[in-house]
Amino acid sequence: MFRIVNKKELNSSVTLLEIEAPFVAKKAKAGQFIIFRVDDYSERVPLTIADYDREKGTVTIIFQKVGLSTNLLASKEVGDTIRDFVGPLGIATEYEGYKKVAVVGGGVGCAIAYPQAKALHELGVAVDVIAGFRNKDIVILEEEMKAVADNYYLMTDDGTKGEKGFVTDKLKALIEGGNQYDAVIAIGPIPMMKFVSLTTKPFGIKTIVSLNPIMIDGTGMCGGCRVTVGGKIKFACVDGPDFDGHEVDFDELMNRNSIYKEQEAEMAKTHICRMDKLAKELIH
Amino acid sequence: MANMSLEKIRMPEQAPDVRNKNFEEVALGYTKEMAMEEATRCLNCKHKPCVSGCPVNVRIPEFIAEIAKGDFMAAYKILTSTNALPAVCGRVCPQESQCESKCVRGIKGEPVAIGRLERFVADWYMANCDEMPEKPVQNGKKVAVIGSGPSSLTCASDLAKAGYAVTVFEAFHTAGGVLVYGIPEFRLPKAIVQKEIDKLAAMGVEVMTNMVIGKVLSIDEIIEDMGFDAVFIGTGAGLPSFMNIPGEALVGVYSANEYLTRINLMKAYLPDYDTPLRKSKAVAVVGGGNVAMDAARCAKRMGAEKVYIVYRRSEKEMPARLEEVHHAKEEGIEFHLLRNPVKILDDGKGQVCGIECLKMELGEPDASGRRSPVPIEGSNYVIDVDTVVMSIGTSPNPLIRSTTQGLEANRKGCLVVNEETNQTTREGVYAGGDAVTGAATVILAMGAGKKAAAAIDEYLKNK
Ligand SMILES: Cc1cc2nc3c(=O)[nH]c(=O)nc-3n(C[C@H](O)[C@H](O)[C@H](O)COP(=O)(O)OP(=O)(O)OC[C@H]3O[C@@H](n4cnc5c(N)ncnc54)[C@H](O)[C@@H]3O)c2cc1C
Ligand SMILES: Cc1cc2nc3c(=O)[nH]c(=O)nc-3n(C[C@H](O)[C@H](O)[C@H](O)COP(=O)(O)OP(=O)(O)OC[C@H]3O[C@@H](n4cnc5c(N)ncnc54)[C@H](O)[C@@H]3O)c2cc1C
Ligand code: SF4
Ligand code: SF4
Ligand code: FES
Ligand SMILES: [Mg+2]
Asked: Where does the FAD/NAD(P)-binding domain start and stop, copy by copy (chain B) (predicted)?
């Protein structure tokens, strides 16, 4: 059992939890992830390690409530425990030889991009952060990002905060404006990562994306997380989750991620009953 | 006077068209009377050919003689003197190629039903005298066991009995290895495996789940920082292979590992669980081993109307247990033998709508004497399916060997060990089971765990 020691609602749909997991905290690195299970009936769900505290033995995750499992997790309070929490999984991001990097985050992807921006900043790399959101209500981690970024650009689709436009508009402008990036790190919805990769390709800038296929074990034993990169099958949980954005087959990933769309929608509807049942179990 | 019936006493089973809709056990087990009668078919042969067919040399005629007398307790003691998991082995050993293949009664007629008798004794014991073992006196030394499949469970059990403080590190959220994530409930009830794990706990073995060794801890950290005196690696061969044919990335293509894990470990067949699984109407399972049979039979039980086995050789070459092939056929699984998939078809929306196969014929025998299949040019045809399960083999996961200095593996990724001791190329680090042999059997994995436990005991006594 893993105990929740801190909880923050970052916006109406994004939650931060700090969880006691000393073994994971001891080894965690930026770019790695965990897999959690809320209770004995739950599925296994991956989330990026947003932060960790080796001394306290805690790991922080930041996640968007999108369906059954993430809602169930968000329903837990400080002091509650969750059944399973395994990690750190995946290969940590490598930052060799960078002088200047653009970190592009889309929506909750900013939560995943943040530890990378922070790690780069701590290594003395110049970091430009471009953060994109649909509107002002869902902006997260603004202060945290500013603290580690040399330049922070906030973009919203509707212009209710920061500049109106897409992250790709800003990225293109910065590159064309003469910024020499050794790499671009893009984390967010699949279409965003695809378009960032398309934007950087003509400039030949190395572009790293963090892929989010459906996972089970996270150790290379199910193959469910397979993605095509450079024409070859890769298992994102052990070969990634970071890959070269210019080589990734994003359309395939998009398609594969839709496998349980109907069932997930169904489950999201019934999740209310599930929560009721859980509440009853707690009372008994 | 021995019972000279040419046939085994039949095992009661759920009817095929009933059982292919539920996950309860298919074979129901012998009654006392059936077991005692079958036991009288054993001739108590002097040279005991059957014993040499068993990888752990179960004292077969001796335990069967006790069954014939009705002393099941005595039978259990004899059985468990060499086999720690008789309830498992009685159910899943490929008896027809092991113990029973050497039985003299099999020369004319069917061999003695050694597996069924073994299962009977184990089940009888569980139902009647199930006491938990006590915690043995501790000798002050610690051993880490990585993985919790049959090799690890056997190794941990023997070491705990010898007084070692044993910690099992398992990557998944539940211990048991393939016995819980691969082999379905209808073939091996999970309660049986859990009971074995409870016994380990009673002996003081600590089981830590959610620990992916190579990630959260390295072998070196286990030894140096955590103070373990020896390590056993029983991490199996869980890395799935794909065929590298067009269409394998379509929605609806699973590895058998994923398919079976969702169903067995994560209980997609029970409504209370959150695990999603594709609702399939027609499923093709590619392969001919136990894994393929299990996947096909699970697909049927999950509601698929049509389930096909697609296998590139003929039935004779199928590595699956005879009983499973037989059961699968009874349950309505259709076999496309001597067929090789060349392509998985897209319905235009990124989902599977068929599998294109090529007919094969058996060619000249090769060096090993096996006639290998050769494709018949232009014989392509399509089977309409919405789901494909790839069950064409697995290999050891590189996670541990790639994070441990000095741990040698062969070309296939299998850990290299000393055959006498099962020690790896690192002192104090032992390995066994599928991690060493590649995908094999439960009983071989158990044998390796046992051998390694004895060698670890020897090593630590002298250290
Ligand atoms: C390596 C990795 C890191 C991730 N990090 C974060 C993070 O830090 N914050 C965050 O908000 N989200 C993260 N995700 C995505 C997160 O796992 C999904 O949002 C979550 O699984 C949704 O589950 P659900 O039951 O709540 O929703 P559902 O309604 O069941 O699913 C919604 C969508 O999530 C995806 N999904 C469903 N099940 C899984 C699964 N088992 N594994 C992966 N994706 C799945 C599918 O695309 C699906 O359509 C990450 C994914 C991966 C692979
Ligand atoms: C579907 C299926 C059906 C089968 N049917 C039969 C049958 O009928 N008869 C038969 O004799 N054999 C059968 N087999 C084969 C048999 O199950 C295996 O040979 C046997 O289980 C191997 O045992 P093992 O102890 O080596 O490893 P496994 O049972 O594979 O267990 C390995 C364990 O190690 C864990 N692990 C892996 N990596 C790590 C890590 N880095 N850190 C921590 N833990 C880790 C895994 O999660 C797993 O729990 C079948 C196999 C499958 C998949
Ligand atoms: S352990 Fe397996 S091979 Fe040995 S006697 Fe029992 S069933 Fe036969
Ligand atoms: S070979 Fe057959 S008949 Fe002879 S002892 Fe073994 S089981 Fe009995
Ligand atoms: S999640 Fe199973 S192989 Fe990656
Ligand atoms: Mg879900």
From this structure: 141-449
User: Domain range spanning residue A139?
Assistant: 100-210
Query: A187 and A161: one domain?
Result: yes
Probe target for ligand 3 pocket from B52, B78, B93, B103, with the most ligand atoms within 8 Å of CB = B93
Burial of B63 (0-12, 13-18, 19+ CB in 10 A): buried
Query: What's the farthest any 2 CA atoms get from each other in chain B?
Result: 69
List, for residues B168-181, the tens digit of each pLDDT value.
999 999 999 999 99
Chain A residues in contact with B264 by the CB 8 A cut-off are: none
Please name which of B420, B443, B423 lies closest in space to residue B433, comparing C-alpha atoms: B443
Q: Which residues of B touch A237 (CB under 8 A)?
A: none
A108 with A186, same domain: the answer is yes
Decide if A193 is inside a domain.
yes
A82 and A159 in a single domain? The answer is no
Boundary residue ending a domain (A63, A89, A115):
A89
A198 vs A246: CA distance, rounded Å: 7
CB contact under 8 A, A221 and B275: no
Q: What is the pLDDT of residue A112?
A: 87
Over the stretch A51-108, which tens digit does the pLDDT of each residue have? 999 999 999 999 999 999 999 999 999 999 999 999 999 999 888 889 999 999 999 9
Ligand 2: which residue has its CA nearest to atom 8?
B92
Return the sign of the alpha-carbon dihedral for residues A211, A212, A217, A222. Answer: negative
State whether residue B231 is helix, strand or coil: strand
Q: Which residues in chain B come in under a pLDDT of 50?
A: none
The mean pLDDT values, 10 residues at a time, for chain A of 284 residues are: 96 94 96 96 95 96 94 96 97 89 94 91 95 93 94 95 94 95 96 97 96 96 97 95 97 96 83 63 58
Q: List chain A residues with CB under 8 Å of B212.
A: 86-87, 89, 218-219
Residue B1 has what pLDDT? 59
Token code pair at residue B286 = 């590619």
> Is residue A153 included in any domain, yes or no?
yes
Cβ–Cβ below 8 Å for B258 and A222: yes
Distance (Å, whole) CA B204 – CA B191? 20
Domain boundary (A62, A89, A116) is at: A89
* Same domain membership, residue A119 and residue A66: no
Name the nearest CA neighbour of A186 among A262, A113, A132, A91.
Answer: A113
Shared domain check, A206 and A117: yes
Q: What is the pLDDT of residue B123?
A: 96
Q: What CATH number is attached to the domain comprising A175? A: 3.40.50.80
Q: What is the pLDDT of residues B60-110, one digit of tens each?
A: 999 999 999 999 999 999 999 989 899 999 999 999 999 999 999 999 999
How many domains does one find in chain A? 2
The residue whose CA has the least distance to atom 4 of ligand 3 is B54
Q: Is B436 in the pocket of ligand 2 (CB under 6 A)?
A: no
Q: Which one-letter DSSP state was computed for residue B42?
A: -
Residue to test with chain A: of B181, B215, B241, B344, most A Cβ within 10 A:
B215
CB contact under 8 Å between B248 and A84, yes or no, is no
Nearby residues of B368 by Cβ (< 8 Å), 6 or more positions away = none
Q: A219, A225, A260, A280: best mutation site toward chain B, by most B Cβ within 10 Å?
A: A219
Q: Which A positions 254-273 lie with beta carbon below 8 A of chain B?
A: 255-256, 258-260, 263-264, 267
Residue A22 maps to a domain:
yes
Kindly list the residues from chain A whose CB atom is less than 8 angstroms away from the CB atom of residue B350: 252, 255, 258
Q: Nearest Cβ partner of B257 from A223, A263, A274?
A: A223
Shared domain check, A188 and A119 = yes
pLDDT of residue A266: 83
A39/A121 same-domain check: no
Our measurement of the distance from residue B104's CA atom to the centroid of its chain's CA atoms, rounded to an integer in Å, reads 27
State whether residue B261 sits within 8 Å of chain A by CB. yes
Atom of ligand 4 nearest to the CA of B111: 2
Look at residue A137 and tell me if it is in a domain: yes
CA atoms within 13 A on the CB side of B366: 7
> Counting every residue, how long is chain A?
284
